Amino acid sequence: MLGLSRQIWAFWPIFLKINQQRTSVSKRPLVPQTERQLPTAAIIGLRLRRISKLRSRCLHFVLPWIFSILLLKSPLSDSFAPILLLHVCAGDSSPSSLPFPNQKAKYHRELEAAVDIVQRACRLCVDVKSSLFSAGGRILEKNDQTPVTVADFGVQALVSLELGKIFPSIPLVAEEDSAFLRSNNLVDSVVNAVTHKANIGDEPLTNADVLEAIDRGAQNDFATGSKPATYWVLDPIDGTKGFLKGNEALYVVGLAFIVEGEIVLGVMGCPNWQEDVPCKSNAEDKGSETILSSSGIIMVAHVGCGTWMKRLAVMMGRSAKLPEYWTRCLVDKCQLVHKARFCIPESQTWASMPLSASLNERNDASSTGDREILLLSTCCGSLCKYLMVASGKASVFILRVRSQTLVKAWDHAVGIICVHEAGGKVTDWRGSELDFAADQVERRIIFPSGGVLVTNGNIHSQIMDMISSVSTIN
After folding, report:
1. Mean pLDDT score of the chain, rounded to an integer?
2. Residues 6+ apart with CB under 8 A from 169
3. For residues 454 and 397, what is the distance between their CA atoms, to the nearest angstrom?
């Protein structure tokens, strides 16, 4: 054992160096190619490496360590250990589930977890929605008259449970709390919905588990103080009105990760994305352009790595033979305001926007003139509009914030990084970036001056000039 320990430490700098270079040096042999020149222990290590290339990620990392443990007490232990550890540290890494190398993404572990969790949350939404309309499920309304379903609470419980297991020390800021759920005797329904999607152990989920998970993201659950903090931001279902309207209306499950005040990654799942989106593909055999299917998409963004889309895995049941690959998403290239495609909230009218003083809206792209813009009809919620801009389907999303209106962090966080990484820009109407640390205690509210402007970046300054020329911004 002592000899083994000494040899592991002696080889450790070499292992680290190889591990850093394994993506730039392809298939470099770890030991000489002629096996006749090798001792028995080295031959075992070489053959083990060859076999592991055909194994899953689990076998790739676990099997060598199992052999190392078994050989610790054998006569070969001291000579075998360095070769075996070299194999584990420098062997080919398993393919990333992300559209870019893990080495490029500082928070790849958090992003991979978020993608998996959001996909399962979307599946929960689809299942609940199916039962809602086929079996007369109950639809509720909160005090602010926003429709809420079991899916809303179920998604928050699921995401909270999963993130709590993987990243127990990182808090969650989310929309719902369990008080409303308790008062309407729907706890059992939410538990049933979450049980089928959560990665639970032998012990079944209890009502207390689910209620505690929901309240983990609720108001007053934690206080960050005045300094920037690290936390997750979740909108369980953005666009619950769209969720209730039927298959044609859009809704989004949105999850963002904020580190020391900066949004570093985001994931949006839209189970019923209805239109094909041309994007640049990362699949070598797909060419430079491809078309995403309309049966649901997931969008991811990581700081410095771009924004990407792929088919939503939870929707593959209807067409399991169709390919799944990531495609790069970019904002559109529109450079003239009157040629841009606009989105506004369903609760606001174009006449309430400052641009209406010089531009009229039209809903038909074929009939817009020089002083008219195309106003898209999209449902529902803010994140759907961010998704439209980030995917190139819209040029602008503009939101007016009236006095006494509370702007929630979860309605914007994940959308902002998706637009930024796709090449767009997001500011308030004064041109300032949205400050997610302005709510110094709970990080739930943001305070944009005048409103929020989301654009492709090319026409941002033009629209800012138009806003400032006709509007007094508080």
Report:
1. 76
2. none
3. 5
Active-site annotation holder among 152, 177, 209, 411: 152
pLDDT in tens, 304-324: 999 999 988 655 454 444 556
Please state the pTM of the whole predicted model.
0.75
209 is catalytic: no
58's CB contacts (< 8 A; 6+ apart) are: none
DSSP string, 316-348: GGG-TTS----EEE-------GGG-EEE--TTS
DSSP string, 119-177: HHHHHHHHHHHHHHHHTT---EE-TTS-EE-HHHHHHHHHHHHHHHHHSTTS-EEES--
Length of the chain: 474
240 part of the active site: yes
Block residue for tokens 């070489």: 46
Signed CA dihedral, 128, 131, 132, 138: sign only: negative
Assigned token pair, 427: 């500011």
CA distance from start to end of the chain: 71
Amino acid at 267: V
Give residue-wise pLDDT tens across range 157-187. Answer: 999 999 999 999 999 999 888 888 888 888 8
Q: How much is the pLDDT for 78? A: 42
Q: Which of 78, 149, 215, 240 is catalytic?
A: 240
Kindly write down the DSSP assignment for every residue of 58-85, as one continuous string: HHHHHHHHHHHHHHTTSTTHHHHHHHHH
pLDDT band of residue 411 (cuts 50, 70, 90) is: very high
- Cβ neighbours of 11 (radius 10 Å): 17
- Comparing 63-77, 381-395, 398-412, the range with the smallest average pLDDT is 63-77
d(C-alpha 367, C-alpha 386), whole Å: 25
